[in-house]
Amino acid sequence: MGISLFIGLFNIVDFFWIGKLGSEALAGVSAAMFLIWCAYSAMDVSMVGINTLVSQNIGAGNLGRANRAGTIGIIIGLIAAFFVMIVGLTAYPTLFRFMDLAPGTQDHASQYFIWFILGISATFTWRNFAAIFRGSGDTLTPMRLIGFALILNIILDPLFMVGFGWGTKGCAIATVLTHLIIGIIGARILRRRGWSFGIQSFYDPKDDLSPWTLAGKIIRIGIPMGLTGFIFSLVYIFLARIISQFGTAPMAAIGIGHRIESIVFLACMGFSTAAATLVGQNLGAGKIKKAEESAWKSVFYLTLVLTPISLIFILLPEQIMTIFTDDLNVIREGADYLKIIGVSEIFMGAEIVLLQSFGGAGYTLIPTLISVPLTVARLPLAYFLAIYLGYGPSGIWWAVAMTSLVKGTTLGVLFKLGLWKRK
How far apart are CA 144 and CA 281, in angstroms? Predict the structure, then answer.
């Protein structure tokens, strides 16, 4: 929970300073983030695989294999980061044109995206180190690291964006630099605890699982979750084209809304990664009933957290939006977004926790086949509500809220059926 709060605050600090640059900057960074989410989906492959295999092998008492899984996962992440950087730098102009962004908005989007994607390997590596910590049952160290990154970001954002006059690219540079610093610190902490990342941790002749077999397991476990994230991000790229038809204000509004909502989302991720770790460790130790209880307790406690937050979104949306901008059009659109999305936050939380719990059990295919089509359904539903029925941006927000509600409910039924226990 703590690490999620700090990451959420990190994002809010970014958008607070971006808001000082105007609505075009807000809209541009919002559009850039849709592409960056696509990049993050590649990171999810190694991150979920590391978390699952490290936790399962520690639960089974096989520390050597846990170390090897972490090392191989880091290598997979670095390779993925390189290809993501090349593809991103090649494809971003076409994708921004597809979103039909206004010229000023596209300039801000390009500045932010280029500098962020150039340092994407730092983000991949830091997140994968965090997965090793979590898989080994240590959530405190990643929380301290991102807390330190938050302090750095509070200093660097105004320095780079305003002091040096770098604008939106200064925000991206500050983020990448803080990720690089905490990644280096995280690696040193793991090495002091006995984790090795040399050739000996890549190949162990005494282990009957070869490096390629372990790499294959990491990828097989992580790909469904990565695919889910990629489809989710791709849907938002198409949604951005629909949003752009209503001007800059709705795009800026959804960017602010996502940053505010990121505290909720990352709280969900905090509970979900804890659930995935506990499910993986308990299954590794043969405690199936305890694994199931861990997931449902995470859903319950997360619901207790999300209920008051949802009420705040519904009752005080304008007051929240004024923290980030004084543009009345953006405030109006953002308040509408928060009121609508507040209805579905609890269901989104259940969806995220249960998806990660399935991942901790190594049972990811069926949940993916449920989650992905429902995410894709946002596109025709958004077009139908926003364009055909004429509800405008509100129709897009309702499409997102309704599909989240259905996904959370459906995954809850699937988890209760218990097919994942046979994995």
Answer: 23
Three-class DSSP category at 309: helix
The rounded distance, in Å, linking the Cα atoms of 171 and 358 is 35
What does the pLDDT look like over 239-276, one tens digit per residue?
A: 999 999 999 999 999 999 988 887 787 778 778 878 88
3-state class (DSSP) for residue 119: coil
pLDDT tens digit string along 193-206?
878 776 666 666 67
Q: Residue 234 corresponds to which tokens in the numbers above?
A: 């791709």
User: Residue 369, exposed/middle/buried by CB under 10 A (0-12, 13-18, 19+)?
Assistant: exposed
- The C-alpha atoms of residue 256 and residue 91 are separated, in whole angstroms, by 25
pLDDT exceeds cutoff 60 at 187: yes
What is the rounded CA–CA span in Å between residue 123 and residue 213?
Answer: 26
Q: State the number of CA atoms in the 13 A half-sphere of 141 facing the CB.
A: 21
The answer to whether 256 and 116 have CB atoms below 8 angstroms apart is no
Query: In angstroms, rounded to a whole number, what is the distance separating the alpha carbons of residues 122 and 102?
Result: 31
**Considering the entire predicted model, what is its pTM?**
0.82
Query: For residues 379 and 239, is the Cβ–Cβ distance under 8 A?
Result: yes
Q: Are 78 and 125 in contact (CB under 8 A)?
A: yes
Question: Which two structure tokens, joined as six digits, stand for 96?
Answer: 């921004």
Amino acid making up residue 143: M
DSSP 13-45: HHHHHHHTT-HHHHHHHHHHHHHHHHHHHHHHH
- With a cut of 90, say whether residue 285 has pLDDT above it: no
Instruction: Give the gyration radius of the chain's Cα atoms.
Output: 21
Q: Which candidate, 287, 226, 173, places its Cα nearest to that of 47?
A: 226
**What angle in degrees, to the nearest 10, is found between the helix axes of 211-244 and 63-98?**
30
- pLDDT at position 348: 92
Straight-line distance from the first to the last Cα atom of the chain, in angstroms, rounded to the nearest whole number: 29
Say what the pLDDT of residue 14 is. Answer: 93
- Which of 118, 50, 34 has its CA nearest to residue 84? 118
3-state DSSP assignment of residue 210: coil
User: Structure tokens of 386?
Assistant: 């926003």
pLDDT in tens, 309-348: 999 999 999 999 999 999 999 999 999 999 999 999 999 9
Q: How many helices (H) and strands (E) does the chain have?
A: 17, 0
- The span from the CA of 218 to the CA of 224, in Å, is 11
